[in-house]
Each structure stands twice: as C-alpha cells, then as structure tokens.
Amino acid sequence: MKTKFILMVLLLLFFSSNSSAWMLAIKGGRIFTMSEGIIEDGVILIENNRISEVGRDVEIPEGTTVLDASGKIVTPGLFDAFTQIGLKEISEEESTVDVSEKSEPLTPQVRSIDAFNSQSELIPVARIEGVTTILSAPTTDNVIAGQSAVLELAGENVNEMILKAPAALHINFGEKPTSTWRERKKIDTRMGVVAKIRQKFIEAEDYAAEWTKFESEMQEYIDNMNRKKGKKDLEEPEPPERDLGLEIMVQALNGEIPVIASANRKDDILTAINISEEFGLKLILLYGTDAYKVAHILEKKNIPVLVGPITTQPSKMEKLGAIYENAAILDRAGVRIAIITSGSHDVRDLRFQAGIAAQYGLPISAALKAITICPAQILGVDNDIGSIEPGKLANIAIFDGDPLQPLTKVTDVIIEGRMVPMESMQTRLYEEYR
Question: Strand pairing partners for 83?
Fold first, then answer.
C-alpha cells in the first residue's frame, strides 16, 4: 500500500511538472522587433523558451511572471558573428589558448566546439552587455583554419549551447597566414597560400568522386546479391578511407555550409571571390578592410561581409585603406553586413562598435540590425534568432536608453526565455571590495 502511494505521488509530480509551462511577459517597453518595425509600449509573451506573442494588446495570462520594461528599449539579444570566446581565456597562459591548431597550415578537420570552455569567465562579461549569441571560430593563422559554431551564451556545457555546428568552414588570405607559416618554412607568399587552398579543394572534389563511385558500386553489389539470392561469390566493394578534413570541404563544395574567407586588401578580397567562383562556394567575407573599394562587386555577387572591428587602424600594410565609414559605404551599396569584434575579451564592446559605425554614417536601424538579425541571416539561423517575433527563441536584451550609446546600461538579458544573472567576475569583485 505504501509503495502504491509513493508511486502515485511520483506520477502526479511528473505530470504536473511537465504540463506547467514557464511563462514570462515583458511589458511596457519600446520593442525594436528588427522584422516588423518598432512597437511602442508593447508586450512580449514568452512560453518556455520561445516567443508566443508580440504586440500592444497582448493579454497576459494569470500566473505569468511579468518583467516591467516601461521607459526602456527592448531588442533581440545581440549576436557577435566572429569571436574566440571560449577558445581563449588568458592570452599569456598557453594552456587557456585554443584558437589555432599549429601543427600544419591546413586544418579543416578541427572544430571550435571541441575546445570550447563553457565555463569561461568571458561569457558572463559579454552576456551582461546584451550579447546572447556568438560565432565561436578559430583565428586566421592557418590557411584553412577549421570549423566554427553558432553558440548561445547560456548552458552547462557546449552541447547545450549549440545552435548550429558546423556553421562555416574558415579559409584565410593575406598577411596573417603568410607570415605565420613563413616563419615555419611552410609558405612564403600569397601565391603559396592560394595554391594550397586550390589544391585542397581539388583533393576534396576527388574525394567526393571516390565516395560517389563507391556508393554506386555498393548499390550494384546489393542489387546483384538480391537477384542471386545472397550468393557468396560476389565481392563487396571497399569504401574509401575516411578523411575528416576532406569531408567538411565536400560539404562546402556542395553548398551545405558557407565558407568564411578572411581578407583585408582589395586584391585579397578579389582572390577570395575568384576561389569561391572556381569551386562554387557560398562565400562570406570576413574583415574586409578594403571592402568599400569593391562594394559594387560584393553587392552584385550577393556576398555578405562580417565587417570589423569598426575601429580597425592602418596598422599593417594590408590595412592601410582602413576607414571608419566602411560599414556605411557597404550598407549604402546594398551589401548585407554584420558588425563583429573579432576577439574574446572585447566581445562586450559589440554595441559600441555598432555605435561608432552609426557615428560614421551607418543608419541607426542598420547598425542595430548588423548586430541582431543580419548576422543571423548571414549564418542561416534567422529562423530561431535575430528578431522579436512569434516562434523564435526568446533571446532578448533590455536597455535603459539608446543601445548604441556608451552610457546606456543593459538592465536585463534573457536567453531561451530565462533571465540570466546580471553579474560577472568583475561585478562580484566590485561588490566584495567596494
């Protein structure tokens, strides 16, 4: 009898916990939806991890937790589309740096998720500044650097944080891979960099052809076995040896994932475009210091740019053309852009980078889109994030003023419908010692 009673209680607890939905309403704010304009004094209704309703006259069910955003600005969570958060903690401590596989110049097989530190202290630092999503990617040291992933900045481990993996394959042009591998006697010139990229894609084409041939032979073998009712005198074909690097490159050749190519100088950008057209790649340009010089080409070929940092200086030969108006010129030309910080410690400055771009001619609406909906569209996750509309994940940032202004504070951050703690190691130290 006692056992039966305990079982009944457990069943009741199970069904009650699974039938009750987590409900949160954000009420009274000025909502920048990024898809349907601005809603004044609006309501966002969140059920579990997704947005269920958005509007002015949304009825809030009884029992819903209400967050008052009156007088505040509400936007989608910010998205930094190129970072090394989770791959680098302390620059001078090698054991915490996993941004580049240094064993060889071509490493398409490596994945950022295999080194990602979900307990990084830099995650809450970025999060309390409104950043809810990142592209975690290897740096530009290698000719072919590896695979990136779109991650949300909440979760106990990387598997809970993955929104899309692999998100892209990364290849690099210009000074960084050349200088990195010149010192190691592997590559001397830009010509060498491009030759290695072309050769590797040719190998990937051959690899794909080998597997296509094997699959055809295997199907023929199966058909013959069925016709001969399992006779053992037929020789089963041997599959090709698997190559993880070539497998991901085949995905890029098939258009299943984009290729993010870093290039700064005008001729390097044009070379990246030539490579993408030779092999039919879905190209995304990274950095693009001189991108404004070829804006008409990028627009015509529908190539988006992950532009930034906006404060890039003419500190290297390939960056002599750096101007703060780069993002504005690209936007006016019709090029889709996302603004990036390209780091780990400075991801918290994402909205300020967008603010500088706005100061130098980028419309404010475009600047906000460049750190919300545009990176989501460019990286193919806009069905889930990037705007405030029903059905999307409830990743939201709330500000006490203009999000692009330095003195504005982030008051609340929500990831997948849950409010995250507005604290970091620095805020805890401040409270302890002030």
Answer: 136, 343
Cα 190 from Cα 317, distance rounded (Å): 14
User: Residue 300: which of 271, 267, 330 has the closest Cα?
Assistant: 330
- Going along the chain from its start, the domains and CATH numbers come out as 23-77+386-434 (2.30.40.10), 78-173+243-385 (3.20.20.140)
pLDDT digits (tens, 9 = 90+) for 143-193: 999 999 999 999 999 999 999 999 999 999 999 999 999 888 889 999 999
**Angstrom distance (rounded) from CA 310 to CA 322:** 9
pTM (predicted TM-score): 0.92
d(CA 193, CA 197): 6
In sequence order, what are the beta bridge partners of 29?
42
Question: Residue 267 — pLDDT band, cuts 50, 70, 90?
Answer: very high
Cα dihedral value 2, 5, 10, 15, nearest 10: 170
Q: How many residues does the chain have?
A: 434
- Residues 9-48 have pLDDT tens digits of 443 444 344 445 689 999 999 999 999 999 999 999 999 9
The string of DSSP codes covering 372-425 is THHHHHHTT-TTTSSS--TTSB--EEEESS-TTSTT--EEEEEETTEEPP---H
